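Quick one - inputs below.
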Amino acid sequence: MTDPALSGDTTSATVRDTPVAGSAAQSRSSADETRPRQRARRKHRGAAVIWAVLAWLAALVFFFPVLWMVLTAFKYERAAYTDPPTLWFSPTLEQFQAVLASGVGTTLLNSAFATLVSTTCVLVLGIPAAFALSLRPVKKTKDVLFFFLSTKMLPIVAVIVPLYVIVNRIGLLDNIWTLIILYTGMNLPIAIWMMRSFFLEVPAELLEAASMDGASLWTAVRRVILPLVSPGIAATALICVIFSWNEFFFAVNLTAVRAQTAPVSLVGFITGEGLFWARLSAASTLAALPVVIAGWVAQNKLVRGLSFGAIK
Amino acid sequence: MATIAYQTASCLYEGAANPAVDRLTLEVDDGEFIVLVGPSGSGKSTALRMLAGLEDIDEGNITINGKDMVGVPSKDRDIAMVFQNYALYPSMTVAENMGFALKMRGVPAGERRRQVEQAAELLDLSDFLDRKPAKLSGGQRQRVAMGRAIVREPQVFCMDEPLSNLDAKLRVQTRTQIAALQRRLGTTTVYVTHDQVEAMTMGDRVAVLKDGKLQQFAAPTELYDAPVNAFVAGFIGSPAMNLVPALVTSEGVQLGESTLPLERDRLAALHRQELSSVTVGLRPEQLEVVPAGQGIDVRIDLVEELGSESYVHAHLVDDRGGASTRLVARSHRRAPGRLGETIGLRHGAGSVHVFHPDTGARIDGEEMSARVGTGV
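Output:
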């Protein structure tokens, strides 16, 4: 590159774009043409540094509470209360042991069961629905889609009392299957809308080509369409997992002991005798861990996105 | 190997006023290459998709080898299709794409590989068998789409504008390759295009469609020499045939000041139909540029130089029927005239085409009409 000052710069794409044009200009003509370019480049670079600093600041502001939670989880209760708060402490696993001993394991298992089963149900019901609503549209497709969306318009608080009465009458209070049904119903509209947008990207000719090649509809969907939309399905599944795992309102109202989920059990650490910051942090860290791991695992698929190379 | 017959086959889209394909009747011989051509919305793609089983046959029927295809799903028709956007399976490699149909048929892996490699060699794709379609150029993707069709050795090839996504040079090259490949394989082929040059150069016979209706189904040269109506006349040939209104006189038809003579039996036909004016069709390549006064006098509006030839766009100097009777002539000379200059256009070899002013139907003398037959 022509400008040695730029060679180490990786912060801004606009800065990196210019040297090619700049070198052409330099070889072609005199200095009075190149100077304004260099000045412009320096200006770009300054802006890039400012943006980078701002971005880091914003990221830190958002990440700090999470970091503090994780740090606090490794403190003794005494160290968690110091004023001013301290970053230097002797770490311990005591809080995690206490949390696990207090029976949080059962609630984590309940959460995991409700999450996995409801997400599976959502995918089993949602994938065919999204397929039909995108690749096989009929006259009332728009109305059906609106109906799905409309189920999300009523606030859950407004239905909790009748819901409680119904669940009580059919004897499903404090039963994990109640939550599974509710979570499936809660996530299904979002999942269908999300997956539909991925299915819409699939050209209809692919299905036609597969059927000309002698594939049945099921084979065509399984071998041709699903590999294409799998990143979209992964993204949808992740959203469903997060929503179900973190769901609090249904769980706190419709479960008690047997079917209690992790978010509800966390509240148990906020008691009348006082807050147990370190223990609450340890429990929260444990509860957040599965979602973080799921996001990490799905990340590759999510980022890869949809690549429809066969089209044009 | 198959014969195809459309028998008054129609396709009606829901909510549409007119059928997309209206009582189409066509017979395709075994091993023939036929081209369906027409402007957009003419129903040519729909007609092809009806054959492929991707569109319902609402009335009439289509037979392959005499077997009725109504209600037969496309996967059971043994037809291979090349799509406009190729529709390659993005998640599969080139080899998997080409072998997919064989796999569906239960051909063992070794045999599949052999057939795919054979087809790949034919299409110069051997080096790309393990690549995904996204890593191929447009021309290579087009060849993979062709390969996917030929590997199967189907009864019929359907091709839906397979060249329209290629650049002009590659299109000409691929055009000849496809035509040669089809001759070699001898597979009955139905090819859809909106490009009349493709239609003329590739097809054994060409079906011209407009608004879902078949206009004419004939060999390319016959379409050129004896178009059955003004639409076919204007569609086939480049630059398009000049279709201009003219008065009927006792010797022929009058354009501006000059008269183009007609044969006696054609004049008789005009008089029998009591027509005082007709639409006259003059091919640009039949118009010769001559000095003013020696032909139809026109004033030059534009000259397009193509190097090997030039197109002269002009309008009639003495125009009684209005100011905008325009004519295009093709000249083999460079700079046949300057802008605004008045020149003459002489009608050279070949006959003048005469069409009914309202219906656009071709008007011939007795023995001519017997030869051309009815295409509408």
